[in-house]
Amino acid sequence: MANTITSSKISASPEQVWQLIGGFDSLPDWLPYIPSSEVSEGGRVRSLANPDGDSIVERLEVFNHKERYYTYSIMKAPFPVKDYISTIKVKEDTDGQSSLVEWSGSFTPVGVSDQEAIELFHGIYQDGLEALQKAF
């Protein structure tokens, strides 16, 4: 199993950041790569579309509003991995005035090397957190 994690400092309070990204259906609000999201199963499954028209279906596994994180798995996606699980978390940065957002994932590569899969998701997480910075 391979994994990656990236983090970014955001110039906003954890509450403000969580307000934007904490909804499981909120990706289109801050992530340009995901223009649309539809939820089903009482908000526990999201069906996403990417700019190429590919479908990505993810399941909410854990949601913790108090600690500002959620964990999700991929049910269907065009990615060369299986057993994907990811967590996005918002914490208070050490300066007490900004946030530290961490996005991590673990997965089993299929038909690609561990390094190729790690680079794919690390890039997705990094691009996503850069887009989040721009939202503030």
Q: Biggest sheet: strands, sense, closure? A: 7 strands, antiparallel
What topology, given as strand order, has the largest sheet? Answer: 1-7-6-5-4-3-2
**What name is given to the CATH topology of the domain at 2-23 and 64-135?**
Alpha-D-Glucose-1,6-Bisphosphate, Chain A, domain 4
In sequence order, what are the helices and strands, one letter per element? EHHEEEEEEH
Topology, please?
Layout: E1 2-10, H1 14-21, H2 27-30, E2 36-40, E3 45-49, E4 55-64, E5 69-76, E6 81-92, E7 99-109, H3 114-135
Antiparallel strand pairs: 1-7, 2-3, 3-4, 4-5, 5-6, 6-7
Task: Describe what you observe in this structure.
β6 and β7 (99-109) form a beta hairpin. Strands 1-7-6-5-4-3-2 form a seven-stranded antiparallel β-sheet. The N and C termini lie far apart (34 Å). The chain has a domain at 2-23 and 64-135: 2-Layer Sandwich (Alpha-D-Glucose-1,6-Bisphosphate, Chain A, domain 4), CATH 3.30.530. The protein has three helices and seven strands. The protein has helices spanning 14-21, 27-30, 114-135, and strands at residues 2-10, 36-40, 45-49, 55-64, 69-76, 81-92, 99-109. Helices cover 25% and strands 44% of the residues. It is of the alpha+beta class. The model has no long low-confidence stretch (mean pLDDT 95).
Short key terms for the protein model shown above:
single chain, 136 residues, Alpha-D-Glucose-1,6-Bisphosphate, Chain A, domain 4, 7-stranded antiparallel β-sheet, 3 helices
